[in-house]
Amino acid sequence: MEKVELQKSSDENKIIEISLVNFPKMKTEIEIELQSIEYFSEDSYRFGSKYSFSEEIIGDKINIEIPNGKFVGSIQVKLSKTIPFYKNYYGIHTIYFGMNEKRIKEKFSNEKCSSEYSFSIKLAKSLKYHNFCDDLDVINKKYKLKFLTNDRTEFNPTRTVALTYAGVSIGLTKSFQHYPYAPFLLLASYFGFFLNDVDISSEIQQESL
Asked: Which domain of life is it from (predicted)?
């Protein structure tokens, strides 16, 4: 199904207010993937249009316009900063609405969202934080989302060792026999020597309309 870009203004659109609290001066990006859902009964439903939005956030607030309706999907915020040949900072937090991390439809009986964290194998054991909520229902509720950091960063030895190993291993191949340090230095310039995770949490405020 073709995806529709969000942020197309309409009188029927609803606003989701998103604020960033205590965020450090790093590149901050937001990515939204939503799909409308229509219920015939509690266990009978069908999916509709898909909507997407991706943008770098400048400042500490952003308002997102979405069509009126009920949705499942995710809103994700990512933080990143690299000081070449020194340090890399990376943080990610995803709020899932009406689905689990595998993007499978799921009903959450608890009215409050539940938070979890895990390690991403894809990102070489980088910390990932999640909040799991029921469907995004902008017909009956107004949403305000807060993403927060606490100035805490954590050195990630697994990612650091994995990057060092990759650079050294590539340097030992025949292709780089005259410049064995080139791959390592190239990776270090892009990712930094020391890789750090940034903690990001979220708060979801829901007001009945």
From this structure: Bacteria
